[in-house]
């Protein structure tokens, strides 16, 4: 629909085109490393080449002799900063090396080429210490954390899950492994920093510039109003830009040291060690059930790793607390501190690996029972959230499963494994459910009525490619009862009213609530009398209203269906079709929502088939450090992908009735694909990714290379 004829009545839900789309396709949108600044220098970091130890000496003479090199920063001469609360930002503070890839020096040059050449000329001596990067379920240093990421309790138990499991008629006891995974946004982590009269301005690729400003102010001992953080355009984040990363600290250091604007854009090979990763997770699932499929016991135990400098626990057992009605249950986490980079957020942290394991185990249970896997999930639909006992604000998982099955022609499926072949190809289909919690954070927005009849909405939201500024414009237009074309929205600057970060699928719900409130109040003011000559501005702050302690359990749900072919000669798996049906509140923009669902599903395909990383035990680093070795899916990897939704009318969320949609698309996809591979081959593979060598080995171990 053309925005010029968009009406207030159709603002929400309409497929409004991105407001910044023309800037992006014409190249006029400026990203963090593209800021033109007179006298701008460039920086290049030097990563540690050991996995644990200390720097005993740094020879910078050869680097400083490189033409164009301006400075080399090390722990011996870098600006002294306050100790950071986040230890991953403590770069160039001292001589320690907590993991391979830790930055031990920074070279600043007139050009990017000079800085890179200078970095290659720095010589570093180390005192090497023994390291350990290998995760096992029996690791002697593993412990039970009090909390996992998101503030969830590390362990929860109801009833007697062990005893009930042992006495139940049908049992499944299986292990799954998810490897380390890496965020690879199209725009690498980058910052351009500049000092002027004691004030710091940074253009940085971040999911939340309000947080970056607070961190920089604390590190450099500045009042927050002396720091401006700009992130008008961000080329993806997927969680890795949810907290400040070393690039923003190092760029600000270099700019202060040299007195010039400095740009630091991380090389993609440095990102796995410097910007967080999805930690590997080892799962044990035990499901007990009656012959009719009703669960009696559910036990999900997860072992993961963290670094030695900062605890991060992937909350992979938490989804099992939400999904199914099991009277007796236990969900636990154990974490081993290793000499590894600190793990962090990656799209749907916890839910993506946790639901892969749970939904694979549910498929295995369906096989044991001889039961349709869709019906097994429906039989175990809970009346209230199993862990908390709270009623759901809305839960339409059964409708998603039914609608997905209808669209996918699930009823025509022969449930027998290896029942369909096309020459050397085995064809199979699988299903999995998905969930993602609803989260809302306090935010502030300002709405101004201008004399020319237009409106300006200002909020420090961050559009990381999701279309957030467009959807916020629609929310404003709806609250003001005006066409979308009359509303302009400014985002991406810490000088704007403070807002939460773009993470946890909470952005639109959080920012949109503040925007709706500001615009609704402005509309009331406008109804009271004529507009003053200089306009009217109204602010709204949702602090205290974004209720984290709701009496309702609030989640989005979905159902994923996949059809695959498996080549019995090569072991290659191809996804012919992916289908997702979601119940995610009121959809605010059908165009951008579909894009988010499809993007998540595509990322889930990568998790299932191509993406995986390995920690080299001898050297202590990730073997797959760039896109030549870490394989992300492309358009050719799935010819048919569909996203649909059930529009929910949930009044217990926010004024828009919306739930987050940025992450649920990845949550069930890997399990649906893995279940489809089992249906195709009769081989159950329990370690991701399902690479050709693993699939082919499984087929050969089963015996035979054709259907039958």
Question: Can you walk me through this structure?
Answer:
The protein is α+β, with helices and mostly antiparallel strands and 708 residues long. 25% of the residues lie in helices and 24% in strands. The chain is globular and about 75 Å long. It has a 7-stranded mixed β-sheet. Strands 9-17-16-15-10 form a 5-stranded mixed β-sheet, with helices on both faces. The protein has a 5-stranded mixed β-sheet with strand order 18-19-24-25-26, sandwiched between helices.
Proportion of residues in β-strands: 15-25%
Q: State the low-pLDDT regions, or none.
A: 1-5
Summarize model confidence as the mean pLDDT. 96
The gyration radius over C-alpha positions equals 26 Å
Q: Tell me, briefly, the overall form.
A: globular
Structural class: alpha+beta
Counting DSSP E segments of at least 2 residues, the number of strands comes to 26
Helices and strands in order:
Layout: H1 21-26, E1 41-47, E2 53-59, H2 61-64, E3 69-73, E4 96-97, E5 103-109, H3 112-121, E6 123-128, E7 147-148, E8 152-153, E9 155-158, H4 161-167, E10 170-178, E11 190-196, E12 199-204, H5 209-220, E13 227-230, H6 246-258, E14 262-265, H7 271-274, E15 281-289, E16 295-307, E17 328-338, H8 351-369, H9 373-379, H10 397-408, E18 421-422, E19 425-437, E20 444-449, E21 455-458, H11 468-480, E22 487-490, H12 507-528, E23 536-541, E24 555-567, E25 573-583, H13 590-609, E26 640-645, H14 664-667, H15 669-681, H16 692-702
Parallel strand pairs: 1-14, 12-13, 16-17, 21-22, 25-26
Antiparallel strand pairs: 1-5, 2-4, 2-6, 3-5, 7-8, 9-17, 10-15, 11-12, 11-14, 15-16, 18-19, 19-24, 20-21, 20-23, 24-25
Helix pairs in contact: 8-15, 11-12, 13-15
């Amino acid at each position: 629909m053309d925005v010029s004829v968009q009406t207030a009545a159709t603002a929400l839900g309409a497929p409004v085109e991105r407001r910044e789309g023309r800037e992006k396709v014409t190249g006029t949108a400026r990203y963090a490393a593209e800021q033109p600044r007179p006298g701008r220098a460039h920086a290049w970091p030097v990563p540690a080449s050991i996995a644990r130890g200390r720097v005993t000496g740094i020879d910078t003479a050869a680097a400083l002799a490189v033409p164009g090199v301006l400075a080399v920063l090390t722990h011996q001469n870098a600006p002294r900063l306050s100790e950071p609360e986040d230890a991953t930002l403590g770069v160039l503070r001292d001589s320690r090396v907590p993991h391979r890839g830790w930055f031990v020096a920074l070279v600043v040059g007139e050009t990017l080429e000079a800085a890179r050449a200078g970095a290659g000329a720095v010589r570093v001596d180390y005192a090497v210490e023994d390291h350990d990067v290998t995760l096992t379920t029996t690791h002697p240093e593993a412990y039970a954390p009090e909390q996992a990421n998101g503030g969830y309790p590390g362990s929860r138990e109801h009833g007697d899950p062990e005893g009930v499991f042992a006495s139940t008629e049908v049992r499944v006891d299986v292990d799954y492994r998810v490897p380390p995974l890496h965020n690879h946004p199209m725009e690498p982590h980058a910052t351009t920093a500049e000092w002027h009269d004691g004030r710091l301005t940074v253009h940085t690729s971040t999911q939340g510039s309000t947080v970056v400003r607070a961190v920089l102010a604390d590190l450099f001992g500045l009042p927050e109003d002396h720091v401006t953080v700009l992130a008008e355009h961000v080329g993806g984040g997927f969680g890795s830009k949810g907290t400040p990363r070393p690039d923003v600290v190092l760029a600000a250091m270099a700019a202060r040291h040299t007195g010039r604007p400095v740009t630091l854009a991380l090389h993609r090979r440095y990102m796995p060690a410097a910007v967080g990763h999805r930690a590997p997770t080892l799962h044990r699932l035990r499901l007990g059930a009656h012959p009719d499929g009703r669960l009696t016991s559910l036990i999900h135990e997860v072992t993961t790793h963290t670094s030695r400098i900062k605890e991060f626990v992937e909350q992979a057992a938490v989804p099992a607390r939400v999904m199914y009605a099991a009277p007796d249950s236990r969900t636990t986490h154990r974490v081993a501190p290793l000499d590894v980079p600190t793990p962090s957020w990656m799209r749907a942290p916890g839910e993506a690996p946790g639901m892969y394991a749970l939904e694979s185990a549910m498929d295995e249970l369906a096989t044991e029972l001889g039961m349709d896997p869709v019906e097994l999930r429906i039989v175990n639909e809970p009346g209230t959230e199993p862990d908390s006992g709270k009623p759901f604000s809305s839960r339409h998982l059964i409708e998603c499963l039914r609608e997905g099955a209808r669209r996918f022609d699930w009823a025509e499926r022969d449930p027998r494994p290896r029942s369909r072949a096309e020459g050397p190809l085995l064809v199979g289909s699988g299903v999995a459910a998905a969930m993602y919690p609803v989260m809302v954070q306090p935010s502030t927005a300002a709405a101004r009525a201008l004399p020319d009849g237009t409106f300006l909405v200002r909020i420090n939201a961050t559009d990381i490619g999701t279309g957030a500024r467009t959807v916020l414009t629609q929310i404003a237009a709806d609250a003001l009862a005006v066409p979308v074309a009359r509303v302009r929205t400014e985002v991406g600057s810490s000088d704007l009213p403070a807002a939460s970060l773009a993470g946890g699928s909470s952005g639109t719900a959080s920012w949109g609530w503040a925007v709706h409130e500001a615009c609704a109040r402005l509309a009331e003011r406008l109804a009271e009398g004529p507009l003053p000559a200089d306009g009217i501005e109204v602010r709204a702050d949702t602090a205290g209203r974004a209720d984290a302690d709701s009496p309702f359990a609030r989640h989005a749900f979905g159902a994923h269906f996949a059809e695959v072919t498996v080549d019995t000669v090569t072991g290659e798996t191809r996804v012919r079709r992916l289908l997702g049906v979601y119940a995610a509140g009121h959809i605010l923009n059908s165009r951008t929502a579909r894009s988010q669902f499809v993007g998540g599903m595509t990322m889930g395909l990568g998790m299932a088939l191509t993406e995986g990383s390995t920690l080299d035990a001898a050297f202590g680093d990730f073997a797959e450090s760039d896109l030549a070795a870490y394989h992300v899916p492309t358009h050719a990897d799935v010819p048919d992908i569909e996203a649909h939704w059930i529009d929910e009318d949930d009044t217990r969320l926010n004024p828009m009735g919306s739930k987050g949609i940025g992450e649920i698309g990845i949550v069930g996809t890997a399990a649906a694909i893995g279940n489809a591979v089992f249906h195709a081959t009769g081989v159950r593979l329990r370690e991701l990714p399902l690479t050709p060598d693993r699939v082919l080995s499984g087929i050969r171990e089963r015996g035979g290379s054709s259907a039958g």
